[in-house]
Design brief:
The protein is mainly α. Helices cover 63% and strands 0% of the residues. The protein is built from eleven helices and no strands. It is elongated. The relative contact order is 0.14.
């Protein structure tokens, strides 16, 4: 039988191009709520403008002598208040004219920044700390604790803010900056408490809070490590906007003669003094009013920008 040989062709070698290794992509680091908010804030023109204004106001309040060499309290009766301001003399004592006692209006506007900024920042700091603590306790523990603190908050919230501050200030004969701070803080903590309470009630239902409780974390640790950082966003927004309101309230009380008084330099004091001479020397009232409006507007713009950055629904 013939020998049959089966020839099997070898498979042809496949010509394959060398695989190009994909360049490793750097994993983008996940940003937190605060990280996202900071990115949004840097792109917000309102935040940039308000931040520049507030930085300038803080610089003026800390170092007023850098911006004027004139004294805000020493007057020269030779400088008549009916003389019109020399708007071309930028930065000079004559720039905004003089008041009825021969004092430079520009110098008083510059030095008046300090009292307004101190009142606004100090009241905001006090009411934020006090309101945040009370709101945390009420929202986290609930029950009878929440009922007592909520009713106490409602009682203070029902008192008209300016009217209550006027009544409190009537009890003091010497009304200094810190007296006004105390009067405004005494009635100004209610809104922060309400906002913090609502935020804590929402945050305490989160899984990470239940996990911390299951692992045996203490109450103080849960409140300040897990709940407070995640409930502070709405409080910061409210406090930032309220800061401008406290500055306006101080000027209102000083205008009514129940807040700061001479020799303390304040925009409210100057507005009150200028109101009597508005028909013949409007500059005495005009420039402190403009400065007050710019300051309040700057903090309101900052608060609105922060609110838009921290509220996911507005993105």
């Amino acid at each position: 039988m013939p020998d049959i040989t089966k020839t099997v062709d070898a498979p042809a070698e496949e010509t394959t191009a060398p695989a190009v290794a994909a360049a490793p992509q750097k994993a983008e680091k996940a940003r937190s709520l605060w990280g996202d908010a900071w990115v949004d804030l840097r792109r917000n023109p309102y935040f940039v403008i308000s931040s520049v204004l507030i930085f300038l106001l803080l610089l003026i309040s800390a170092f007023p002598s850098w911006f004027t060499s004139a004294s805000p309290t020493e007057g020269d009766l030779v400088k008549h208040f009916l003389t019109k301001p020399e708007l071309g003399s930028i930065g000079s004592p004559d720039w905004f004219g003089y008041d009825g006692q021969g004092r430079s209006v520009y110098a008083r506007v510059i030095y008046g920044t300090r009292a307004s900024i101190i009142v606004g920042v100090a009241v905001t700091a006090i009411v934020t700390v006090l309101g945040a603590i009370m709101g945390m306790i009420a929202g986290y523990f609930g029950g009878i604790t929440d009922a007592i603190l909520s009713r106490l908050t409602d009682i203070f919230f029902g008192v008209p803010f300016l009217l209550g501050a006027m009544v409190v200030l009537q009890a003091f004969t010497d009304r200094t900056v810190w007296t006004v701070v105390f009067a405004l803080a005494f009635l100004g903590w209610t809104q922060i408490t309400r906002v913090m309470r609502g935020a804590v009630i929402t945050v305490k239902q989160a899984d990470y809070v239940h996990a911390a409780q299951a692992l045996g974390a203490g109450t103080v640790r849960i409140l300040f490590r897990h709940i407070l950082p995640n409930a502070m966003a709405p409080v910061i927004v409210v406090a930032t906007i309220a800061l401008g309101g406290y500055i306006s309230a101080e000027a209102t009380l000083s205008y009514l003669g129940l807040g700061l008084a001479s020799p303390t330099v304040s925009w409210g004091v100057d507005i009150s003094a200028g109101a009597a001479q508005i028909r013949v020397a409007e500059h005495i009232l005009l420039y402190p009013s403009i400065m007050l409006s710019i300051t309040v507007l700057a903090f309101i713009m900052l608060g609105e920008a922060v609110r838009n950055a921290l509220d996911p629904k507005l993105r």
